[in-house]
Write a structure and sequence with these properties.
Helix content: 40-55%
Distance between the termini: 11 Å
CATH superfamily of the largest domain: Glycogen Phosphorylase B
CATH architecture of the largest domain: 3-Layer(aba) Sandwich
Number of domains: 2
Number of helices: 12
Length: 407
């Protein structure tokens, strides 16, 4: 098949998943070309040499919303950024439509969730959706639709400035919801990474999707000698509030003696939040270390040497990190929510827990003190990833799903 790929992904789990999918499709003999503002996610994705990349510029980050556009949003019109995204997708679609492709394999849009490309391409269209545009549908930590506290003086200029500003903001998000649902409907098939994500899509859009599980690169993620000499537990993901590193810090802080270091690895960091967490760690006498943008080789080394991984993300739709840790022989202590319940088997390759620092601390101590149990979990984890979460099985699943669209 001749497959056109579109995405708007930055570095992270979504782009790693796409890299794996493209590698698998190329290995099956398919011809792949990629359209995006940053086709290789600024070098994060390492794509096969025979994959052709088409860079189509996107101006999203270069624009500030004008007063005129805010006024237009009061009437549920699209703002400049959304219109520019549409133009970007139209240009990509025009090139794809003229290229003799059999199918479009689209991926998530960093800004809008479900991409606009579905409306303009005239061939069968498949979307791999990492997750809905969560802040539109979930409390993070508050709902964006929640009304403000009552303002007593409704005749003050401050009230009316706030009123119109809030109305513009609310209407803008309502347009986001409207357009995302229409984009979803325009795809012939939507694939998701877990049953939890399938349920999330049904809640958000009232529409159906199909589970197509991901896999882990066993050639890369495997047990090696760690470069760290002192005991540590590990966290992995962008250092943001929704990844919940605060819970990991508080959990380590509950260990009464021989407290390990908390080592956090992430490509992106909220600097203000980082400083808050540094202060929290200091107050709890927890050693907190952050490593940014490290190599895959160092990541594998650090995963291999950890006592365990604390996976504290809020409602993570799938979560590569726990399986990557397992592939390196490292047990995972994960909050029992989201897609992680489909990958972690309690007592086998890790533990599913409540969001309770004392409970998490108890499992950390157990993994630190009971080497026999840790070795059993480590052995099961490595074999489980090889048998159930390999790239080979991932490639077979995505190939079957895409081929079904053109038969």
């Amino acid at each position: 098949m001749k497959i056109a790929v579109w995405h708007n992904l930055h570095s992270g789990g979504g782009s790693r998943a796409l890299q794996y999918h493209i590698q698998g499709l190329v290995e099956k003999g398919h011809h792949i070309e990629v359209w995006a503002d940053k086709p290789d996610a600024d070098g994060f994705m390492h794509l096969p040499a025979n994959v052709k990349l088409h860079k189509v510029p996107l101006l999203y980050d270069e624009h500030q919303t004008s007063l005129k556009e805010r006024f237009a949003s009061l009437f549920f019109e699209k703002d400049f950024n959304m219109k520019d995204m549409e133009q970007h997708c139209k240009k990509c679609a025009s090139e794809i439509n003229q290229g003799g492709f059999d199918v479009l394999f689209a991926n998530s849009c960093f800004y809008y969730g479900v991409p606009f490309i579905s409306r303009f391409v005239k061939i069968p269209k498949v979307l791999y959706l990492g997750e809905p545009n969560r802040y539109l549908y979930e409390a993070m930590p508050e709902q964006i639709w929640e009304a403000p506290e009552e303002i007593s003086n409704k005749w003050s200029s401050k009230f009316w400035v706030y009123f119109f500003s809030n109305t513009w903001r609310t209407n803008k998000f309502r347009v986001y919801v409207r357009e995302e649902r229409k984009n979803f409907q325009a795809f012939d098939k939507v694939l998701v990474n877990s049953y939890f994500s399938m349920e999330s899509c049904k809640r958000a859009y009232g529409l159906l999707s199909e589970v197509c599980y991901l896999g882990v690169d066993n050639e890369l993620f495997k047990q090696v000698k760690s470069s760290e000499s002192k005991p540590y537990v590990i966290g992995l993901g962008g250092f943001y509030e929704h990844k919940n590193p605060e819970l990991a810090i508080r959990s380590v802080g509950e260990i009464p003696e021989n407290r390990p270091k908390l080592l956090w690895i992430g490509n992106m960091v909220d600097d203000k939040y980082w400083l808050e967490m540094v202060e929290l760690a200091r107050s709890l006498n927890v050693t907190l270390e952050l490593k940014k943008m490290i190599t895959d080789e160092l990541l594998v080394s650090l995963l291999s040497g950890a006592i365990c991984m604390i996976y504290s993300s809020n409602l993570e739709p799938f979560g590569f990190a726990p399986l990557e840790a397992n592939a390196c022989g490292t047990p995972v202590i994960a909050i029992a929510e989201g897609g992680v319940r489909e990958t972690i088997i309690h007592g086998k390759n890790g533990f599913l827990v409540n969001q309770n620092p004392k409970e998490i601390a108890e499992y950390i101590i157990q993994m630190s003190d009971n080497q026999l149990l840790r070795n059993e979990i480590s052995e099961f984890s490595v074999n489980n990833v090889k048998e159930n979460w390999s790239l080979k099985s991932c490639s077979e699943r995505i190939n079957k799903a895409i081929e079904s669209m053109v038969k």
